[in-house]
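Q: Structure tokens for this one, please.
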Amino acid sequence: MDASTLWQRYQEWLYYHEGLGFYLDISRMRFDNAFVEALQPKFEKAFADMAELEKGAIANPDEDRMVGHYWLRNPDLAPTPELTQEIVSSIEQIEVFAEKVHTGGIHPPKAARFTDIISIGIGGSALGPEFVAEALAPDFPPLAIHFIDNTDPAGIDKILTHLRNKLSSTLVLVISKSGGTPEPRNGMLEVRKAYAGQNLDFANYAVAITMPGSKLDEQAKSENWLMRFPMYDWVGGRTSELSTVGLVPAALQGIDIKEMLEGAKEMDDATRVADIKKNPAAMLALAWYYAGNGKGEKDMVVLPYKDSLLLFSRYLQQLVMESLGKEKDLDGNVVHQGIAVYGNKGSTDQHAYVQQLREGVSNFFLTFIEVLKDREGASPELEPGITSGDYLSGFLQGTRQALYENHRDSITVTIPEVSPRTVGALIALYDRTVGFYGNLVNVNAYHQPGVEAGKKAAAVILDLQTKVLGVLQSEKSALSIAQLAEKAGASDKIESIYIILRHMHANNRGVVLQGNLSEPSSLTVSMG
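A: Here is the predicted structure, written as tokens:
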């Protein structure tokens, strides 16, 4: 296209939301009008289905539950008055709790104020709070937050070592829907042990964010933890940032949660318009569908041109890939759907993988995130009339143009600044886009059977480890790994047994391996 035609296309496919100061440009995706018209019937169904979803339709038949994260930012939309009141009450509860913590009305036994937070969670209970903390926490927050988001012992040690002199003023958030997910349970047990090691009663520092009646809720209740906040079965982990999961840690860091919710509500309203060109989530879903031929044939590269949005691509990675990565569609057909997501930040990545994006395999489309406001206050001129923010903007425009010239498509999302309101709006925008796209490709965006399969497989390995150790403890002489597997009744799992033994041997857990380590079948094993 020549410059004037491209300018016309830009204006035709530019969306602007005045209240949010938000722009969306999909003009650099090369679909044509015929493509849009062909998708119109699918979109009409998607608009209708999304409206039913918000009214409380069962969207996840696997778990017989509704999907109601939209109600969190507009409680009046909840299908019953009881649910509306529950949501309103939980937000009030969060604000009151945060205020009391900040003023010292709630404080630890041995200090006048809490100074830090350890937030223990996994997946959606970690990625959203981490993204929001990076994007919005003030430079000197009332409480500094630290995340345990894995069951990696060294990672846990790093946090606990960093806080070893401040545990007595550190609040612990334990975030787990069921209370039985291994990673947060393990983190809680390790942190609890660290508190006991300093003669601190863990219950005086602990806050549970969980489903009412869960194992964690019952434990927190019986031990008289500092506070319990509810999670809801109608909010999935990857869409939980604007629930207690994300709002509690945000409020404690001094982030304006009402503004986050208001920004999300405004974006939700915008994405209810049943017209593709007037609905930013529909426009994004259209662009995604075009890019990957409705089959996820191209990866989504997310490139925010703002350091504070560094973790946005990680947040979107879970939201998009866990929601859309499905083996079967809603009719039971094997479709292997999904869109792979990765990214870091601009302009750093112009000195990294953008080289391949420009000239290598054309297996992606790019989403630029542009932030109009450079910084608080005026910027110094580095050259006459040129600031560092001008360079950043120039790099974004230059990369977008260079990619387009080489037939690489891109989307540009523009926000006025990084604020609670705009971050809430971005979260809502992508929530809704995933819902629309899932509808277009006929998959259930609200369940995650693959994740559950991985958890079950891990449990089988741990059961196997217990059996293997039982056999070793009863044996007086060393065994080959094949003999050990046979005695454990698990000859078909010999490779897993070898990996278990190697791990335990490396950690001085009483397992002794002897022989040539490069030839596993030659090894003998015993308890030392």
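A few notes: The radius of gyration is 26 Å. The CA atoms of residues 136 and 291 lie 31 Å apart.
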